[in-house]
Specification:
The chain contains 18 helices and 19 strands. It is an alpha+beta fold.
């Protein structure tokens, strides 16, 4: 069973929005000279590409890394059994030679693995090495270990180039889980199995690059000469890390000190860089992300236990307004918890409620017995470090006052992040503003972690399970059954129909209200080509050329 790791998800999203605090500082610095800049590398002219980022990896051990910082680097040094076609959510074999053979009961996956592959240290790759890598991922008990540990029963090499994995219960999205960066192959000669036995500062895999240097402010990735596949389009990557400071990254890119800049800029900097790209100064590359921002409604608290109140909130939300005014267009409205990047996406909230449908909101409130004389009073909580979510809460407050005559009154409330995320599952907040970054790219990872409940009832709500962790306490035996069906179903079309049903129920019951889907941006100097942003936020270096 995949369990939602709240601290990772929220700290990752919080890290992106913390950069907003540097906005005022940026406005001062960018109008002045180069004072206060960190030293930057001169853009290489020898075929190597300089990539600038604010993200410093905590660790490069795939069994312990659960942050975007490390995933981007590991992705370029490693390979998994399955991966995604660049820029898509379409799975394809990588270290596997074909998609798995699955037993009729959905429990046994037989996977042929690639021959002629070697690790960066010269160790041959085979099924035993792959089994070692996956077993270590589970047994070393790193941050992401539950992704396989809650699902896998056993892993063994049943031939020199054949891997057999036994699951605890059917899970149709399992191949997508095997594309998670942390499940990559690592050399058995360079790593050990044992709880807590991690190697944070090195990496020995099979990917197109090998790690040569990992410093405090820089990393060097050289082309792996014995790589089995097509060689990179460049001669290597020099990463410059700007100490979590988007101002320095912004200035470094504008002065040409980096060829490519990716993660993380604040919205004003992105706006400025996009304007520069429109003037031909450099290139802007936009990608549709798979992170979703949403409202959680606590069904155990009054008056949110009334469906009419939840539907009124769903009707009054104005996503285009939020995206244009607050996000400066750097996102896109979303009408389901499943992003638009998946075929399973259904805009159910748009179909049922629309945007800024204040007549419908008033009607629903009246049915519940609320009006300007008897208003709904609701606190909206968010982490104090998130300026964006504070602005969303303030916008909801203004819409309630101006468009609904005060019939619904939102009270923005914030608290520091650690307490906020700790309190969500305790049911302390009626409404929260949060976001979700997927562990793996499958619609299941946007449904199960929100709607599944392991223990509860219609009367008491969810007592234990994903929806309790998320703070909605939603319980539906029907939805639980549909989730179990989609996890067993191997036919893609039949599985998609199940997701359609689940999304329709989501829009009817309204335990969550989807708001927007992320957009990702990278910037490249003129003369650089091949820059691609994957929906997973993985950033392939090997296709970049200059």
């Amino acid at each position: 069973m995949n369990r939602f790791s709240l601290s990772y998800k929220q700290w990752q999203s919080l890290g992106q929005f913390l950069s907003l605090f540097f906005l005022c500082f940026f406005l001062v610095i960018s109008c002045s000279s180069d004072q206060g800049r960190e030293p930057t590398a001169v853009t290489n002219a020898n075929g190597r590409v300089t990539v600038g980022t604010t993200l410093k990896p905590r660790t490069l051990d795939p069994a312990d890394n659960y942050e975007l910082q490390g995933m981007i680097v590991i992705y370029n040094l490693s390979e998994t059994l399955y991966s995604y076609e660049l820029g898509t959510t379409n799975l394809e074999p990588r270290l596997a030679t074909e998609m798995p053979q699955i037993s009729e009961d959905g429990l046994t996956y037989t996977i042929p693995v690639r021959q002629g592959v070697t690790f960066h240290d010269g160790t041959p790759f085979n099924a035993e090495a792959m089994a070692f890598s996956l077993q270590r991922f589970i047994k070393n008990r790193g941050k992401p270990s539950h992704l396989l540990g809650d699902i896998v029963e056993s892993i063994e090499a049943t031939g020199e180039y054949e891997l057999t994995i036994q699951l605890q219960k059917p899970f149709a999205a399992f191949p997508a889980l095997l594309a998670f960066t942390g499940t990559c192959a690592i050399s058995p000669e360079a790593y050990e199995i044992g709880a807590g036995q991690f190697n944070p500062n090195k990496f020995v895999g099979t990917g197109p690059y090998q790690l040569v240097e990992f410093g405090s402010n820089s990393m060097r990735l050289d082309v792996f000469e014995n790589y089995w596949g097509e060689k990179p389009s460049n001669q290597g990557i020099d990463m410059q890390i700007y100490a979590s400071n988007p101002v320095n990254l912004f200035n470094a890119f504008r002065t040409g000190a980096t060829d490519v800049a990716y993660q993380s800029f604040d919205p004003q900097q992105i706006k400025s860089l996009r304007e520069g790209a429109s003037q031909g100064k450099w290139q802007a590359i936009e990608g549709s992300g798979t992170a979703v921002s949403y409202m959680t409604l606590n069904l155990r608290q009054e008056p949110l236990n009334q469906p009419e109140v939840r539907k009124a909130i769903a009707a009054m939300v104005d996503r285009p307004l939020i995206v244009e005014r607050l996000l400066r267009g750097q996102g896109e409205p979303i009408y389901s918890l499943i992003p638009t990047t998946f075929n399973a996406y259904q805009p159910v909230f748009e179909q049922k409620y629309g945007d800024g449908n204040f007549d419908l909101a008033k009607q629903q409130l009246q049915q519940a017995g609320y009006s300007a004389d008897n208003p709904v009073m609701l606190e909206v909580w968010y982490p104090s470090g998130s300026t964006i979510r504070g602005s969303v809460a303030a916008t909801l407050q203004a819409l309630g006052e101006q468009k609904l005559d005060g019939a619904i009154q939102f009270q923005p409330k914030s608290i520091e992040s650690a307490s906020f995320f700790s309190n969500i599952g305790k049911g302390l907040y009626p409404i929260t503003l949060v976001d979700w970054y997927p562990d793996f790219l499958d619609p299941d990872n946007y449904i199960y972690p929100f709607l599944h409940c392991a223990e509860g009832s219609q009367a008491s709500g969810c007592k234990e399970g994903a929806s309790q962790t998320q703070g909605s306490f939603y319980y539906s035996d029907h939805v639980n059954q549909l989730i179990a069906q989609e996890r067993r179903e191997q036919d893609p079309e039949a599985r998609q129909e199940i997701f359609v049903q689940i999304q329709q129920i989501l829009a009817e019951d309204v335990p969550y209200i989807p708001l927007w889907q992320s957009k990702d941006y990278a910037f490249a100097q003129n003369g650089v080509s091949g820059v691609t942003i994957n929906p997973s936020q993985d950033f392939p270096f090997w296709v970049i050329e200059k």
